Amino acid sequence: MKKIFSYVKIYKKSAVLALILMGLELSVELIQPIIMSIIIDEGIVGQDFQTIIIWLSVLIGLTLLAFAAGIVSSFFAADVSQSVGHDLRRDLFSRVQDFSAVQMQKLTASSLLTRITGDVTQVQAFLFMFLRIMLRAPLFIIGGIIMAFTVHVQLATILVIIVPVLLLIVFWILTEGIKLFRRVQVRLDHLNSIIRENLLGIRLVKAYNRNNHEQLRFNKVNNHLMDDNKKALQLMELTMPIVMLGMNISLVLLLWFGFMEINIGSAQAGEVVAIINYATRIMASFGVFGFLLMNFSRGKASATRISEVLESKPSQVIPKTDSSIANIEGHINFENITFSYSNMKRAALKDISVQINAGETVGILGETGSGKTTFLQLIPGLYKAKSGNLSIDNKPIKEWGRAIRDFVTLVPQEGFLFSGTIKENIAWGNEKAQFDDIVRAAKDANIHSYIMTLPDQYETRVGQRGVNLSGGQKQRLSIARALLANPTVLLLDDSTSALDANTEQRVLESIKSKSCTTVVVAQKISSVMDADKILVFDKGCIVASGNHQELIGNSPLYQKIYQSQMKEDGLS
Amino acid sequence: MRKNRTQDVTTSRHYQGVKVKKPKISNLNETISRIWMYMSTYKSLFIFVLLLVVVSSSLSLLGPYLLGVAVDEIITGIEKTNLIIIIAILIGVFLLQSVTTWFQNYWMIKVAQHAVYAMRKDLFSHVLRLPILFFQTRQNGEIMSRLTNDIENVSRTLNTSVIQLTTSVLTLTGTIIVMFILSPLLTLLTLIIVPLLFVGMNWITNRTNRYFKQQQHDLGDLNGYVEEALSGHDIIKLFNQEERVKRDFIEKNQRLKESSYWAQVYTGFIPKIMNSLNNLSFAIIVGVGGIFAFNGMISIGVIVTFTAYARQFTRPLNDLANQFNVILSAVSGAERVFDVMDEEKEDKNDVEIKNRKRLKGKVEFQSVYFSYGQDDNTLNNVSFIVNPGDTVALVGPTGAGKTTVVSLLSKFYEVEKGKIMLDDQDINKMSRSGIRSQMGIVLQDSFLFDTTIKENIRYGRLDATDHQIITAAKSANAHTFISQLPDGYDTILDSNGYEISQGQRQLISIARAMLADPSLLILDEATSSIDTITEIKINEALTKLMKGRTSFVIAHRLNTIQHADLILVLQEGEVIEQGTHKELIKRNGFYAQLNASQNRAINE
């Protein structure tokens, strides 16, 4: 909340103006009952026509004033809430861009998306309301009581006693109610997750004949949901009857004591009417408390989630690209590297030492979770090793900073496309690329002939609102994107897995002709068989290394993999 | 509000603010009468609630009137005892008003929640019994939305809107009538605000629509961009493009700020107009009413009554249209729910047969025909015989009808022409649950529930002991990796928990099938890339699982096919070749060609 407030401060002027205008509106409503008492006492009871006319015009004038104030406040309040929303989005987005891969993993893309979109909208709506409506109800209650005092002290005392009691009761009901609603939400989430599971796994449910089992599971939660929902709603519905009763009782008391006061001549009829009017208006103000509290707690939750992102420091500010380095050789050296993800107990990489010479092609095999991907991701510095030294061209990776990414390119397994044209996607890393180069990269990645069959060829739109590409096509586009960057070190993270054997071979061959240092993670031995060196990973360690012939000779694990694949492949 | 966990990046695109949907209702009367059916468990209570609404609305009219009378009496000078009587009546009225208001709401919630409970239950039970075809032809998101949002909508509306709408209508008409009786002239003057309200609202909505559309567009654009930038975070880093992405974002952010500014300014006018009209009516009642009172046309008490009434009617006037829309949208939601309930169940003709014997597993297709809807035949004259315990490999291009064959066997669909015999008995004469209780299934996507590994395996046989579960996991080659997980068998498999690989998921679903100990087995091999070592484990486990059971395998792996007792080669819904691997190779037909081309690719 504090963090958000510092953003509002920038638009102090508009915020203060909006609040002042709100106060103006409020004062008009607070004055109305007093004018009413004057009209009654001096005009009607005192038989003075002039007074009535004068005060009628005043009332209309004030109405117009309040109207103008309300309209103008809308501009200022919208300015504050939209500007703060804009700034929050800007800072959130740029902060997230500076996040390391580790931070990304911790906060997850989907949660960050809700924070940047949904939560900011929530805070915006909250601010807008805060500046215009939120303070109104509490201020009106306080102001109303104060005004009542100026009208008639003894009678106003009744309000001072009853209103706080009611406020306490209402507050208690609301806090209890919000607690109960939170439980309802949990039940609802649970119920929905059962429904979702059943939809996704409907074949399984049917095949295992688990209708009754699922129905029972559903009924149980459905039952809880109904009970909790009833409890929460029925409690909340207590608010209005209690407030009505309390305020109506105060009306009756006002009548009674008003009558006594008038009888002894220490009060006038108009004054009693005015205080009754304050009481009815205060009652109406109570109605919005539930709404306010709900919004407040929602806004607060959103604000906390936003602050969490804004206050998390980028783990280490990576130095900018150093344009003075023209090229590198591509010699990679891992020395006793150990790495573990924060959310896992077991180290992902344990004491890895390996040398990759410039221009070499290295293949990596291993089970899922054996550390292959992590190994690759350390090279461009997406993650930082816990211990050990990783250097490229004998310069530690820390000293390279972001500059290393101009020479090292990693192609992830899942081909990721941005919305835009195919051309833009291939040229994504390099906006100034020539069309010829783009085509050459596409040809190298074996995707050119497919692109030419599309309606708009290189101008065909892909991504969210464009044509759907298959996994293999996406992978090839990603490879083309990487090749266009003309990397010295190319890292392929199983990025040919969705290609058929023929195409894969062609792509790998054209990569081979590039003479860059290449590290290929693969599932099939056939994809890495020709590599200068093959590393076999198991549970974060390199358990075997050497070329194909050597490994066939000395690694039982490699033999096992080879035999199973050859058995399959060679069935013929 | 907490969203469902898995509704992540893709669905959050809907997070684009409020959209005003015009509810579409094709059969209002029928839908309402069906909602009524659900409420009729508490029919008398509901009628009583409506009666209470009438009482509480009348009392809310009586209160301000009596207040005015009391004020007049006080001004004109009244006997203490008379005032005590009026006050006693007032207390009675106020007390009764609060009590009736509370009870009407209390009971309405009871009626509504029970109705919604029953609707949810019926809907879910119906959905579980719908044929697979229903789920194939619709998007999960859409069904999901009917089961969750639409019902929630009905629930919320039944809770409050029914009472609110009746109260609004009653108080509005009641207030105007009583006001007319007290002073027709002052009433007419007060009603000036009604046309003003409509003019004002019209002016605003005409303007906001345009800005809202623009805002919606800009917001969608921005959110889409954020989504992309977040899921492509690694790529952005790898290509050193952070600055460019920030620059693009700033541009979109600015555009959004401008369009939403005006949308917000205009919507901000609405409550202010309402307020000002309230103020105006107050000025008219007090000022003009004062003039009337001065001339003796009305009493001061009438002014007091009117000020209270005026507050009572401006709000319902504004709410009325809203509430009506809310109710209509709930009705249209209910209609969508009932649409699902009107879908035909798959087991409508099923008879429950008790005491089933264990099947031997002989399967025979006799000239089976099948098609989805009006399309060409998906299966065309398919015939084959499988002996108990044999393994059948289904081979052929996508869309050839492999999945349809196994789906027909599990009675997910019904045969159009021809017969399927199971242990020499027509499956049309067997119940779905009878067949499925002896059938195990391992699907491509290896669906697992968001619960512990143990419970996921237990799904195969609900009464299995932990020991039996571990035994099943061991023979499915899953025990080793499970025991390495931090919580072992109690590891919860959801997106917040420990991530296990696709291959490991498959091992768990094999363990599940192992535990079920079925006599018929259906296997859909995964095409997705699974690492070699896990694949070896899967193959071993499957071989164990298939032993002694009649197994149908939708095969992608050549070694499965090679070892099958029968290979069915399907093309465009027809079995074009069948036999063992050797026989088919010898025959030198489609299969032999397929085989050769695959080998060439590998050896190249």
UniProtKB/TrEMBL annotation, chain A:
Species the sequence originates in: Aquibacillus rhizosphaerae
* Bilayer-crossing regions: 16-40, 52-80, 125-149, 155-174, 238-258, 278-296
| ABC transmembrane type-1 domain location | 16-298
**Is Transmembrane one of the keywords?**
yes
Cite the GO molecular-function annotations of the record: ATP binding
Q: Name one Pfam family in it.
A: ABC_membrane
| InterPro entries per the UniProt record, alphabetical | AAA+_ATPase, ABC1_TM_dom, ABC1_TM_sf, ABC_transporter-like_ATP-bd, ABC_transporter-like_CS, P-loop_NTPase, Type_1_exporter
Membrane topology recorded in Swiss-Prot or TrEMBL: Multi-pass membrane protein
Cite the ABC transporter domain residue spans from the record: 332-564
List the SUPFAM superfamilies hit by this protein, alphabetically: ABC transporter transmembrane region (SSF90123), P-loop containing nucleoside triphosphate hydrolases (SSF52540)
Location in or out of the cell: Cell membrane
Recite the UniProt keywords alphabetically. ATP-binding, Membrane, Nucleotide-binding, Transmembrane, Transmembrane helix
- Record protein name field: ABC transporter ATP-binding protein
Query: Keyword Cell wall biogenesis/degradation on this protein?
Result: no
| Lineage, highest ranks first | Bacteria, Bacillati, Bacillota, Bacilli, Bacillales
UniProtKB/TrEMBL annotation, chain B:
Note the PROSITE patterns from the entry: ABC_TM1F, ABC_TRANSPORTER_1, ABC_TRANSPORTER_2
Q: Name one GO molecular function term.
A: ATP binding
SMART domains documented for this protein? AAA
Q: Where does the ABC transmembrane type-1 domain start and stop, copy by copy? A: 47-329
Instruction: List the Gene3D superfamilies.
Output: ABC transporter type 1, transmembrane domain, P-loop containing nucleotide triphosphate hydrolases
InterPro entries registered for this protein in UniProt = AAA+_ATPase (IPR003593), ABC1_TM_dom (IPR011527), ABC1_TM_sf (IPR036640), ABC_transporter-like_ATP-bd (IPR003439), ABC_transporter-like_CS (IPR017871), P-loop_NTPase (IPR027417), Type_1_exporter (IPR039421)
Return any one Pfam family short name. Answer: ABC_membrane
Q: How does it sit in the membrane?
A: Multi-pass membrane protein
Residue ranges of domain ABC transporter in the record? 363-597
Per the UniProt record, which residue ranges are transmembrane? 44-63, 83-103, 162-182, 188-205, 282-309
Q: Keywords assigned by UniProt?
A: ATP-binding, Membrane, Nucleotide-binding, Transmembrane, Transmembrane helix
Give the main location.
membrane
Q: Which subcellular locations apply to this protein?
A: Cell membrane
* Protein name listed in UniProt: ABC transporter ATP-binding protein
